[in-house]
């Protein structure tokens, strides 16, 4: 791979570019700009075995997709669509709502077939004029984001309309260079995606072991069982039934610093609801300074602590994450601290807590869920095996959790490198002569 620093630039209406680059309107580089729709009937038309319909809530700020809560509709509806079908190389842009401006690049259509709903634009590149992944990275850059933001019109949350084809201007290097830029940046994104999938598999593996041991009791079926009235089922003899609050102390996070001055020069990670993921680990954090920590009397929690959402938008309820770094947390989150006294229990508590949150959410199904009281969680009865069994489980799954945390740290490093390179490459300051 061969790089060189560019020294000759020219001014344009959207910034400085290399002398041999051009500026093009977004519309000149697109084959089409489409938006999807959803079938009449809304939830009644939802088919859990149908085709994925991607909305703004399924697109993350880092450009990735989160399809865990994606709606699905009947394949016949998908077949009748003239617009909105997702194909490899498409760019998704949220055009209205709370997540307006979010972008995603489609390396390959999820599950082979997918569509967008009416809140998402589908940008289909003209492959003879632009390299679609380069176009995505440009739109994802600071200049691209500024232009997308300035395209929002209307009252309340506003919206983005098809005038972006004429209003958004794109830095336009020669096609071979577009390909080289996209190749380098996508190398980091592809590595990030691989590590995310590894973490998903590692968590599912650990969950399968947890279910086998503590739900189905498969390793203990040859032993003696006794009927437990509190749980209403037979359990292995010698196992205890306790309230979660008797086993571990759950704590609430602290107040969120509000003033911008508390973020200036910030080096202390501060985790909010938006940082929770459907993967086992928190991926990012805001950073606050020492003054904010002191002013709000915030408590630092250790790497390996378990956090979950207890208030806020109901969409994120049920997410349980591990902290891959020491951090402070917001009061919408609760935490089981990773303390020496809890070491043996952490992996067991991670999955136990996930099951408890699912139960609480199901109990309140159909009603507003503004918060989950910590006391409600601590009152939940859990089945606690003897210490030697907990030790065996811990020894078996702790390496999986350690690998998850290591992967997450590598993801954060890869993302930092990509974010450093992206403006240098997309704006032509650092030129790639050979890949």
TrEMBL record:
GO molecular function, one term: DNA binding
Signal peptide: none
Every Type I restriction modification DNA specificity domain range: 18-203, 236-411
Keywords noted in UniProt: DNA-binding, Restriction system
One GO BP: DNA restriction-modification system
InterPro entries, per the entry: Restrct_endonuc_typeI_TRD (IPR000055), Restrct_endonuc_typeI_TRD_sf (IPR044946), Type-I_RS_S_subunit (IPR052021)
Family from the record: Belongs to the type-I restriction system S methylase family.
Protein name listed in UniProt: Restriction modification system DNA specificity domain protein
Source organism of this protein record: Thermodesulfobacterium geofontis (strain OPF15)
Lineage: Bacteria, Pseudomonadati, Thermodesulfobacteriota, Thermodesulfobacteria, Thermodesulfobacteriales
């Amino acid at each position: 791979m061969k790089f060189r620093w560019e020294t000759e630039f020219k001014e344009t209406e959207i910034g400085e570019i290399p002398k041999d680059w051009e500026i093009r309107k977004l519309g000149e580089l697109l084959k089409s700009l489409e938006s999807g729709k959803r079938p009449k009937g809304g939830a009644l038309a939802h088919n859990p075995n149908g085709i994925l319909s991607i909305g703004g809530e399924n697109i993350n700020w880092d450009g990735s997709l989160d399809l865990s809560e994606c709606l699905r509709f009947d394949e016949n509806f998908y077949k009748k669509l003239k617009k909105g079908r997702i194909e490899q190389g498409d760019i998704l842009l949220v055009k209205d709502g709370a997540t307006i401006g979010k972008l995603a690049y489609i390396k390959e259509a999820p599950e082979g077939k997918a569509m967008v709903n009416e809140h998402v634009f589908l940008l289909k590149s003209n492959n003879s004029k632009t390299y679609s992944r380069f176009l995505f990275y440009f739109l994802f850059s600071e200049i691209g984001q500024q232009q997308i933001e300035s395209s929002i019109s209307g009252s309340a949350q506003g919206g983005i309309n098809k005038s972006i084809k004429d209003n958004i201007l794109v830095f336009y290097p020669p096609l071979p260079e577009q390909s080289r830029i996209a190749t380098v940046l996508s190398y980091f994104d592809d590595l990030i995606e691989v590590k995310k999938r590894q973490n998903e598999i590692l968590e599912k593996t650990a969950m399968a072991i947890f279910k086998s041991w503590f739900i189905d009791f498969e390793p203990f079926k040859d032993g003696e069982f006794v009927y437990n009235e509190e749980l209403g089922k037979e359990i292995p003899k010698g196992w205890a039934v306790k309230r979660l609050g008797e086993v571990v102390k759950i704590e609430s996070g602290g107040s969120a610093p509000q003033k911008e001055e508390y973020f200036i020069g910030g080096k202390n990670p501060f985790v909010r609801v938006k940082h929770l993921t459907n993967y086992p680990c928190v991926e990012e954090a805001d950073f606050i300074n020492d003054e904010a920590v002191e002013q709000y009397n915030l408590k630092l929690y250790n790497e390996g602590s378990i956090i979950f959402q207890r208030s806020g938008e109901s969409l994120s309820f049920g997410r349980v994450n591990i902290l891959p770094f020491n951090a402070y947390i917001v009061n919408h989150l609760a935490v089981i601290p990773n303390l020496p006294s809890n070491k043996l229990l952490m992996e067991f508590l991670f999955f136990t807590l996930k099951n408890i949150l699912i139960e609480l959410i199901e109990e309140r199904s159909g009603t507003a869920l503004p918060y989950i009281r910590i006391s409600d969680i601590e009152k939940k009865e859990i089945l606690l095996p003897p210490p030697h069994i907990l030790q065996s489980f811990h020894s078996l799954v702790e390496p999986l959790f350690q690998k998850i945390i290591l992967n997450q740290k590598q993801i954060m490093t890869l993302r930092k490198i990509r974010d450093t390179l992206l403006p240098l490459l997309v704006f032509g300051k650092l030129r790639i002569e050979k890949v």
